[in-house]
């Protein structure tokens, strides 16, 4: 993890970071966050991340204390100071510290914190694929805001792990939304399907990149809701996300997807993604 943090818009040692016990992020999960991927020492798709950050902040009525260019310069400097070549940057903004009260405080100042992690690409999972389970999606109805309220996601991921699976695919009344921490796509008859970018899913940056790459590759891609039954009958399935990139799903609830191994369209997208980040594979 970082030895240098960006905190209160200053670069300071990790041990110097001090978070107030009255921070509203601690009390209420009152804040937003982003996780950027770093490849070859550079932020991946920072513009898409900022657009989502700004949308999430506006959704919870939190004024950002910086603009896009200022934030990108600071995060690039953070990566440089921590000498991270392949990893992630975690950015968190809370509404600030104030006495506990459900109403927004009139005079609180947003608390900004960012740090880096070294993190290699998930080569093993991308090569072999992952097993998954399905769970009812019981989260709130603004999953499009990337807020700190992630306990439902944590519980879903933990349940998957306890059942020997790599992730949980969530659904509302049989309609698949996303997984605990990634977006879900299926392939049927050569066409990619994924849930529309509405309030029921997070508008994933890697999701957007994957759709862009698919269309550039001549692979039809449609943003349309699909059911658990369609998932189980799919030829291929995969998840997309900042830390998982394009990872195949080889089974759902112990039932194989397609032939039970990563499929050809998933492989094409993995190779296209590798080229997009400047790697051969």
Keywords:
alpha+beta, 6-stranded antiparallel β-sheet, 281 residues, D-amino Acid Aminotransferase, Chain A, domain 2, globular, 29% strand
Question: How would you spell out the order of helices and strands?
Answer: EEHEEHHEEHEHEEEEHEHEEEH
- As for the number of domains, it is 2
Q: Largest sheet, if any?
A: 9 strands, mixed
State the CATH topology of the largest domain: D-amino Acid Aminotransferase, Chain A, domain 2
Helix content: 25-40%
**Alpha-carbon distance between the two ends:** 26 Å
Number of helices: 8
- For the record, the CATH architecture of the largest domain stands as Alpha-Beta Barrel
Strand content: 25-35%
Mean pLDDT: 97
Strand-pairing-aware structural class: alpha+beta
- State the name of the first-level CATH class of the largest domain: Alpha Beta
Question: Overview of this structure, please?
Answer:
The model has no long low-confidence stretch (mean pLDDT 97). The chain starts with a strand and ends in a 5-residue tail after the last helix. The protein has helices at 24-28, 46-59, 68-81, 123-128, 151-162, 205-216, 228-232, 264-276; strands at residues 4-7, 10-13, 31-39, 42-43, 87-94, 111-118, 130-136, 167-172, 175-179, 183-188, 191-194, 221-223, 236-241, 245-252, 255-256. The chain contains eight helices and 15 strands. The protein folds into two domains: 4-118, Aminotransferase class 4, branched-chain amino acid transferase, N-terminal domain (D-amino Acid Aminotransferase, Chain A, domain 1, 2-Layer Sandwich); 123-276, D-amino Acid Aminotransferase, Chain A, domain 2 (Alpha-Beta Barrel). Strands 7, 8, 9, 10, 11, 12, 13, 14 and 15 form a nine-stranded mixed β-sheet that branches. Strand 13 and strand 14 (245-252) form a beta hairpin. 29% of the residues lie in helices and 29% in strands. By secondary structure, the chain is α+β, with helices and mostly antiparallel strands. It is globular and about 55 Å long.
